[in-house]
Design brief:
CMP kinase activity; binds cytidine-5'-diphosphate; alpha/beta; five-stranded parallel beta sheet; three-stranded antiparallel beta sheet
Length: 231
């Protein structure tokens, strides 16, 4: 494919666990763009809140979090040895911890808080100043970059999404049932779609990609084709 000279912004939004990050990383590698995982940012704030005992019975102590949130510094590094993007909370590598089920169970509660979103969105825009970015999340095409050059809205059948996440977590050694994952994925979708602040929505100019029956290679080719159609 021809890589466009202009450094584009590509927004990939969609439902929980539907493979957004897989295709975003594959595309970033292919066209030498920067991949930014906005979900990892909400996961880091959630881990921080959990460690500070700010979440109990589905309730977040928002006052305390507002006081402490400036202690949260998020950064990303690419680990060439492990060939993966890694997330840091202050100087600590938290990539594995933020993907665990206890963080997934709380992240949508944190992600619906206005001041948390404002801080994360400012950071997402800061990181993307130079363009040449692929960012995945829930509000990238609607709120973070309403003028993104290409917007994709991804989804897949909930059962397929649950099975994919189940395999991913099992491979990492997490002891978890498929039922628990299905419930988590559906609950996060519900909270993300129904919150007041930047609810998960397809932007009016986003193209829908249902990848229920696509391989990673097929979904990558699908997006590359959309990019080639841009000009
Ligand atoms: O598990 P999955 O990879 O689908 O989720 P994620 O991208 O890591 O995002 C975790 C959670 O963060 C989502 O369920 C949303 O509640 C929240 N999120 C958000 O509100 N806005 C974003 N731009 C990205 C994630």
């Amino acid at each position: 494919m021809d890589i466009p000279e202009k450094k584009l912004i590509i927004a990939i939004d969609g439902h929980s666990s539907c493979g957004k990050s897989t295709v975003a990383k594959d595309l970033a590698k292919k066209i030498k763009y920067t991949y930014i995982d906005s979900g990892a940012m909400y996961r880091v704030v959630t881990l921080f809140a959990m460690r500070n005992n700010l979440i109990s019975k589905d309730k977040v102590d928002e006052n305390k979090l507002a006081h402490l949130i400036n202690q949260v510094n998020i950064s990303f590094q690419y680990n060439t040895e492990k060939q993966r993007h890694e997330t840091y909370l202050n100087a600590e590598l938290v990539e594995d911890e933020i993907r665990k089920m206890d963080v997934s169970n709380n992240v949508s509660l944190i992600a619906k808080i206005k001041f948390v979103r404002e801080k994360m969105v400012a950071f997402q825009r800061e990181l993307s100043k130079e363009g040449g970015v692929i960012m995945d999340g829930r509000d990238i095409g609607t709120v973070v970059f309403p003028n993104a050059d290409l917007k994709i809205f991804m989804t897949a059948d909930v059962e397929i999404r649950a099975i994919r996440r189940y395999k991913e977590l099992k491979d990492k050694g997490e002891n978890i049932s498929l039922d628990e994952i299905r419930e988590n994925v559906s609950k996060r979708d519900f909270i993300d779609e129904n919150r007041d602040e930047s609810p998960l929505r397809k932007a009016s100019d986003a193209i829908v990609l249902n990848n229920s029956h696509l391989t990673p290679e097929e979904q990558l080719n699908w997006i590359v084709k959309r990019m080639n159609e841009l000009k």
